[in-house]
Design brief:
By secondary structure, the protein is α/β, with parallel strands linked by helices. It has helices at residues 29-36, 93-105, 115-122, 128-139, 143-153, 156-180, 191-219, 234-242, 285-299, 316-325, 345-351, 366-377, 392-413, 418-436, 442-450; strands at 7-10, 17-25, 37-39, 52-60, 63-73, 84-91, 109-110, 222-227, 260-266, 269-275, 303-309, 330-335, 355-357. It is flat and about 80 Å long. The relative contact order is 0.13.
Amino acid sequence: MEQTSTVAAIATPNAAGGIGIVRISGGDAIAVADKVFSAVSGKPLNEAAGYSAHFGTVSLDGKPIDEAIALVFRAPKSYTGEDTVELSCHGGVYIVRQVLRAVLNAGAQPAGPGEFTKRAFLNGRIDLAKAESVMSLISAQGEQAASAAFNTLEGRLSGRIESVAHSIINVCAHLSAWVDYPDEDIEELSTDELEKTFSAAQSELESLISGFENGKAVTQGVDTVIVGRPNVGKSTLMNLLSGCERSIVTDVPGTTRDIVEQTVRVGENLLRLADTAGIRDTDNKIESIGVELAKKRLSRAELVIAVFDGAQELTDEDREIVDFCSGRRSLAVVNKSDLGFVCDTDYIKSRFGAYVELSAKTAQGGGELEKVLSDLLGTSNFDPSAAALTSERQRNCCVRALDSIKEARFALESGVTLDAVNVCADCAVDALLELTGERAGEAVVNEVFSQFCVGK
């Protein structure tokens, strides 16, 4: 995974703005910048100190194309750990692309997705958990999500993981020495000491995994489907939550036939929301296709919002939806509170763990919906100031480590030899160090950075 080339990319969004930034990183970054940038001072950037700014012009094919400020960072005190130059020019899309073209013509290679952050990882500037938090911070859509990502970037998650890993590493080292060198005067660890270490590690890992589940709706979003029979107000609710008319709203049952999807934020809860066709038996071939699509979409949803028309008696179709939601994480929304209720709300309450009454048309009850969602999804228990897992990859590493710790404790309780206990403990260490990147293979690293945008 060695990085030797000098790369460049536009580091600002691909849109017009006040400024645009072209970032160059690598052993020849300053030399490349000197070929296209001329400081008004007349001094080349090669003579500039790190953390210095220089005003001048950028040229393409010998012709000045824009005024710019060149920021020089010397290795290893840069974002990537390499020599880096950032050219800040005017933010027109065409101008920024021309500056990048000049830099590439001068010898730099186009940077791949996340390549600058990947180089920061490979050069030891950040670990893999911190690298992932960069992308989490960029994509954060709420205060709590941004706070959680920033705290991970500051190293709080890495600190918790390293603390657990080091406690187990110490046990592994001691057990290995005791097993491999029986003639040496190495004190045997007692069962109580091992149990205390493994128990503490298990508690910490369970806390991290629980925190991820509670914060998932904040940091990643929850795959959510709105379901109900036709014309109960599903599309009106979808439009209320999204703040715009994403779904067609009419008095004609069966209007929604395709699945309409939108990511919305309800308080701090991020929902990847899908409004499906009303579920009912129908002879309309087009509508029946929509109903089948809705059923398939429901099968993979993490949260189901079941909508009922409070102004009408419950139908067989309503009761079928109630049965479908049994055993799933679901929320019952009894709609049309502005018209008065005649449906059996007690029955609905008894079948759902979460329940709210509202008018999607007038938005009455919207605040209660936010509160109920937070309780249901666990976000009311989420503390963004605490170290938190921010990706499924990190969660998977912790789950594997937890399973290995449980196996080590079981082996210990069963009287298995200590070298077998050590094997389980070492597997836990491997999983934890994969999380931070210390033992992550190239495929894992490449997968992490493939999620980044070019220029970061």
